[in-house]
Amino acid sequence: MKIKAAKWFSPLEMRLVEVDKPAPGPWEALVRVESVGVCGSDVHYFRDGRIGENTLKEPTILGHEYAGVVEAVGTEADPTLVGRRVAVEPGIPCMHCEWCRTGHYNVCERMFFPGGPGCDGALREYMTVDARFCFPVPDGMTAAVAAMIEPAAVAVHTLELARLRPGDAVAIIGLGPVGLLTAQMAKLCGAGRVLGVDLLDYRVEAATSHGVDAAFAGHAGAPAEGGAATVAWLREKTAGRGVDVAIDCSNGPDGLALACHAARPAGRCVLTGISGRESDPLPVSLARRRELTLHWCRRFLNNYPATLALVASGRLDVASLITHSFPLERAQDAFRLVTDNADGVLKASVDF
Ligand SMILES: [Zn+2]
Ligand SMILES: [Zn+2]
């Protein structure tokens, strides 16, 4: 049987095609996909065909932020999943390597990640996925909200790495969906003040209604590259001290440098954003003089249940970040909108 899919063929070009309906293996669930969010990382593949050295070598179905209803499961999978709407944790690790066995499955080097090189993603009517990575959502949670558990789980993992102390001052660089979710999570984890910066005026305006206390529209570069005003603003807002934790949620090459400039001595930085390049500038001398601690965030690590609980209880608001919805036939328009940062977009979703 054939199903519809939106497939990437070349930069900025996606086409509606027919593909075979997948059948679940013994440990898998067959998910009827209902909603797929467009992620900042997808934009790199859509526009450039690559993220750093990860290059799409053939036409590929994109999409990894998804939710849907389980229609069937394989012989070894949990049969109670059938009929349930699930948020799907997209990356399926090998479960056998040293990193998987020692509790770091998110850095498994044999990860199957949909919507990337060699692995078709979720912009199709049916997906099969390891049933152990399907998380039933509470009744009444919409599919678009359930798909947002993916970026929200990134924010939850980011805050685990940030190890906030009560009252800490936090700077978020890049106020897209992950940045705004991270701002909310910082508040939930006890931040005293959350400052935000972004290049785009509309995001700065939206930020204060999504968990950011004060936001600044400025260049994200290091001082020498035009970020001086941004650094000056962050310093002024912290009485010259710098923030306790600076988190880069941007998709640009300068966010990490700005995080280092924003952090106080002995402060912490977390790199969560994806610049799409193989290497970015880092002010090593300043970071050493300040003895900064720098963490890199790789997606999430056992964060789906807690993230679902935060969203279900209403403490973490993901719904208001979804600004646009497109049918599968118009998936290319959804990706184009996010690529161009047009029409005030925060999160665009493709809804089936
Ligand atoms: Zn994502
Ligand atoms: Zn592994």
Average pLDDT: 95
CATH superfamily membership of the largest domain: Medium-chain alcohol dehydrogenases, catalytic domain
Number of helices: 11
Distance between the termini: 18 Å
What does this structure look like?
There is one protein chain. The chain has 352 residues and is of the alpha/beta class. It has 2 domains: 2-148 and 318-351, Quinone Oxidoreductase, Chain A, domain 1, CATH 3.90.180; 152-296, NAD(P)-binding Rossmann-like Domain (Rossmann fold, 3-Layer(aba) Sandwich). Helices cover 27% and strands 28% of the residues. It has 11 helices and 18 strands. The chain has helices at 40-48, 98-101, 143-147, 149-162, 177-188, 201-207, 228-237, 255-262, 284-289, 304-312, 331-340, and strands at residues 2-10, 13-20, 28-37, 50-51, 54-55, 60-61, 65-73, 85-88, 126-130, 134-136, 169-173, 193-198, 214-217, 243-248, 263-271, 293-296, 322-326, 347-351. Strands 3, 7, 8, 9, 10, 17 and 18 form a 7-stranded mixed beta sheet that branches. Helix 1 packs across helix 11 and helix 4 (149-162) crosses helix 10. The mean pLDDT is 95. The structure holds zinc ion (2 copies). Residues 39, 41, 64-65, 150-151 line the site of one zinc ion.
